[in-house]
Design a protein that fits this description.
The protein is α/β, with parallel strands linked by helices and 901 residues long. Helix content is 57%, strand content 15%. The strands form 4 sheets. The chain has an 8-stranded mixed β-barrel with strand order 13-14-16-17-18-19-20-21, surrounded by 4 helices. It has a 5-stranded antiparallel sheet with strand order 2-1-5-4-3, with helices on both faces. α5 packs antiparallel against α6 and α17 crosses α18. 33% of the residues are buried.
Length: 901
């Protein structure tokens, strides 16, 4: 137990009173106490020595060190006072005053130099808090007392106070007394000063609980002191009072309680024990024999220094142990409160320790993990990875390393962790254990996996995207290079009519439609195959390890069969088909990009052949694709170079045989290929966005041409008998037919554009007839109905072109504002040889009559066809029988001749 406020409770008021005194008064009081205490203790010590002038211990030596170490070296001159007063006044020696002064000077110089050495060179704590302070204090005071004693005794011998023959014995006795006085008196007084400096004397207000605790501590302290004091008194009596005479044979008995007290309580209690032993032994020996022997002095000196050093060593050990415990507790607190999992693992994989965070993270109690193998916490599929990592760390003696693996919790859940380890070694350099820090990276790992998935998968359907598909295709190509028998195929799939579905139902249902398509495609392929979405309604499929082309065809047919089944989107049934291009791996095609391109070419070939089918790629398709690409480029340049022309084909009234109008037909005057018909380039122009521009150009040019003809012929002399007059009358009712492509018919600006052209040309709206295909009308019949009504309201006549080849419903067709039906040339050309064509043509004419609309037959090429049409009461005809499409000048000449058929 340490000496504290409860043990020295009589001093608080005294120290508070001293602190409030002026500095000079405190200094004067300190010097007075020092001198009086020194003189008093010197006289007390002298009582115990009747045979010599030297006491068994010199207490003033201890006071000298207390004054200098505890209060400062500035009190060095005051060290002269005690020896001078003692040798001149209290116990005067029969020597000259000069020798007395010299003795005092030796004492002052010796102890002041020793104090300066301790404070400024050895840097001890003046309150002897650490073992090194006590050890250095004992060594320096031990030597200093010997030097001072030698000088002191030499001075006395020189003064004649003692004989030189007694010099050695007197030096030893003086040295033993000085050293013992320092050891027995300086430490307890410095201890009191330390307690005062640590403010242990302040009164505190204690509550009931603290008062009960203080009472218990005081009771325990009284009991401890009583036991220690009893042991000391018994040992002193046993060693110095019990044996007859003063042989000191049993003097070692005092070491037993002294060592026991020092080991049990440390330096502070050992200091008190040394003081009690010195006083008790000296008093007992004096009472029994009245004589002081050198053996007694050495015994006391040995006891004093032994007690101090042992007590200081024990206190130092207790301090180190307390510091270690505090550090361990702090480390344990940090260890347990760290945000990461900490564990110590032996090289054989056994868990030696783990912090609370780590145990909680894994769902175990710490006791359930310590002593168990690490495999208990590692996800079994990662065992091999963990073992390889551990083997590598030990084999390569990696001081630090990092690893990522999965761990399994007690509840069976799996988490990702990042482990950072530090390998520890013993003194021989042998690895002993690993300190491992684990951090939960499950969320970041999932985020990383999600980012990786997003980087290589389509966000909408979850299928692989182009990047992942090309990676797997490249892998298949590389594998086929190593194995010539390895065969794979690429399918390029594009949905038919997806734009109609997406625009009609909205993008939300359109997305659901694409997701449903993806699921059906996945259901048609094997797990080793890859289905990907490239974007929009384009999908690709990689079939690996197939036997021959038949396997690929089966997959394509299976996909087409699945896609023809109805889709339920928002309560509506939707049907679709797909065009599929197929390319097989060949030894001449070893580039993934080329394979995908060829599959795309084959898909476009399937679309051009009617859609809802598959086509297998062949080199000729690539040639056609290259030619198509070249045509796209030339089309764009053709607009810049004004290479397009309009030819006019006459439309003849079958009742009068006269020309009633012309159809404006676009032609491309190619610089190398000559005249190119619209069947070769118009679909391409529409795909690349040039269709609307060309249609608008044709409309403007045709209207301008009709306006020119009208102005030209109407300005001729009005002679009714002349041919010019006949032409003028014919030109007044002449109409111009212009085809509207599907893209232009869906444009909201169509009405404004037509109105602007009519205003520019000053052409009457009734002179303009617009030809629209069935399919263009039926793609969005509601919007078409509105558009046709608005065009009709402008006075423009509307014709359904190529009637009979589309998918229009007669029940819906009558709702539209239609003025004329044009029978497709495929029926007209066969009416003389095919009864079916004749019946279809007759049906269309009859239908038109019932609907009160006119009929024009396209493709009239023979007189027989003309006669048949007239028999069917067909209103108008158009074809090579009358005239092929003509340039504007030739058409003008034809108008002038005003032929009749």
């Amino acid at each position: 137990m340490r000496i504290g406020r409860n043990n020295w409770h009589i001093f608080p008021r005294l120290f508070r009173w001293l602190r409030h005194l002026p500095s000079s008064l405190r200094t004067l009081l300190l010097v007075a106490v020092y001198v009086l205490a020194g003189l008093g203790l010197e006289e007390l010590a002298a009582v115990f020595d009747t045979a010599a002038a030297i006491s068994p211990w010199e207490p003033s030596a201890g006071l000298h060190f207390v004054l200098l170490l505890g209060f400062g070296l500035r009190y060095t001159p005051e060290l002269l006072l005690i020896p001078l007063l003692h040798m001149l006044v209290v116990s005067p020696l029969n020597i000259a005053p000069l020798y007395v002064l010299l003795c005092a000077i030796w004492i002052m110089l010796g102890y002041s130099l020793a104090s300066a050495l301790l404070l400024h060179k050895l840097h001890i704590d003046p309150y002897l808090r650490r073992f090194r302070d006590v050890f250095r204090f004992t060594i320096v005071t031990f030597i200093t007392s010997l030097v001072v004693s030698g000088l002191y005794v030499t001075t006395l011998a020189a003064a004649g106070s003692l004989s030189w023959s007694q010099w050695t014995v007197q030096v030893i006795r003086e040295w033993a007394g000085e050293a013992t006085g320092i050891a027995m008196l300086a430490p307890p007084l410095l201890l009191l000063l330390r307690l005062a400096s640590e403010a242990k004397w302040q009164d505190t207000q204690e509550g009931p609980t603290q008062q009960i605790g203080s009472a218990r501590l005081r009771s325990q302290a009284v009991l401890d002191y009583s036991i220690d004091l009893t042991a000391l008194i018994f040992a002193i009596w046993l060693g110095y009072g019990f044996p007859p005479g003063l042989s000191l044979e049993y003097s070692y008995f005092v070491f037993l309680p002294l060592i026991w007290i020092a080991v049990r309580h440390g330096f502070e209690r050992a200091v008190l024990a040394v003081l009690i032993i010195n006083i008790g032994v000296t008093l007992l020996v004096y009472i029994r024999s009245g004589n002081n022997t050198l053996a007694l002095q050495f015994c006391l000196m040995t006891v004093s220094y032994t007690g101090l050093l042992v007590g200081a060593a024990v206190t130092e050990r207790q301090r180190v142990e307390a510091s270690l415990r505090e550090s361990q507790q702090q480390y344990q607190n940090l260890y347990d409160s760290a945000p990461d999992s900490y564990a110590s693992i032996a090289v054989n994989g056994i868990i030696r320790s783990i912090n609370q965070i780590g145990a909680d993270f894994l769902g175990y109690r710490k006791q359930e993990l310590i002593g168990r193998p690490i495999w208990l916490t590692i996800y079994q599929p990662d065992w091999q990875l963990a073992q390889q990592w551990l083997d590598r760390v030990l084999r390569e003696r990696l001081v630090t390393s990092e690893n990522e693996l999965r761990k399994i919790r007690k509840d069976g859940s799996v988490v990702w962790v990042r482990e950072r380890s530090q390998l520890l070694f013993d003194q021989d350099g042998t690895p002993t254990e690993l300190h491992v820090i684990c951090r939960d990276i499950t969320e970041s790992k999932h985020a990383e996996e999600q980012l990786l998935h997003n980087a290589f998968h389509d966000a909408l359907t979850g299928l692989p995207n182009r990047a992942l598909f090309m990676n797997r295709l490249e892998r298949a190509v590389e594998y086929s290079k190593r194995d010539e028998d390895y065969l794979f195929a690429v399918l390029f799939l594009d949905l038919d009519r997806f734009k109609v579905i997406n625009d009609s139902l909205g993008h939300t249902l359109g997305d659901e439609f694409l997701i449903a398509i993806a699921r059906r495609i996945e259901a048609c392929i094997r797990p080793i195959d890859t289905a990907a979405r490239l974007g929009g309604d384009e999908f690709t499929i990689l079939l690996e390890g197939i036997d021959d082309i038949s396997d690929t065809i089966q997959v394509a047919e299976r996909i087409q069969a699945q896609l023809t089944l109805p889709f339920n989107l928002g309560g509506q049934e939707v049907f679709t088909t797909a065009s599929i291009g197929i390319v097989l791996r060949t030894t001449s095609n070893n580039h993934p990009e080329d394979l995908l391109r060829d599959a795309d070419i084959a898909m476009y070939r399937a679309k051009s052949l009617g859609k809802a089918r598959y086509e297998i790629f062949n080199p000729e398709m690539r040639n056609r694709a290259i030619a198509r690409l070249q045509m796209e480029t030339e089309l764009r340049r053709a607009i810049e170079r004004q290479e397009f022309r309009i030819h006019y084909q006459p439309i003849v009234s079958l009742q009068t045989g006269r020309i009633v109008g012309f159809e404006a037909l676009i032609r491309w005057q190619h610089p190398n290929r000559g005249l190119v018909y619209p069947t070769e380039f118009m679909s391409i122009a529409e795909e690349i966005g040039l269709g609307i521009s060309l249609d608008q150009w044709v409309l403007r040019e045709a209207c301008h041409q009709l306006q020119q003809w009208q102005e030209q012929f109407l300005s001729s002399p009005a002679d009714e008998e002349s041919a010019a007059s006949d032409s003028s009358r014919a030109i007044q009712s002449l109409t111009i037919n212009v085809n509207l492509g599907t893209p232009q018919f869906g444009q909201a600006e169509l009405l404004q554009h037509i109105d602007r052209v009519l205003q520019e040309t000053h052409l009457d709206a009734s002179s303009l007839q617009l030809e629209i295909t069935e399919n263009a009308i039926m793609q969005n019949d509601e919007a078409a109905s509105v558009m046709l009504s608005q065009l009709g309201a402008m006075g423009i006549r509307l014709l359904v072109d190529d009637f009979g080849t589309g998918y229009s419903s007669l029940g819906r067709l009558h709702r539209f504002a239609i003025d004329m039906l044009k029978i497709d040339r495929s029926f007209v050309s066969n009416i003389g040889t095919s009864a079916v064509s004749l019946e279809i043509t007759e049906t269309i004419v009859t239908l038109a009559q019932k609907l009160d609309v006119d009929v024009t037959a396209e493709g009239v090429e023979t007189a027989e066809q003309l006669a048949r049409l007239r028999e069917l009461n067909c209103g108008y005809g158009q074809g090579y029988f009358f005239s092929m499409p003509l340039e504007a000048s030739a058409a003008e000449a034809l108008i002038v001749t005003n032929p009749r058929w």
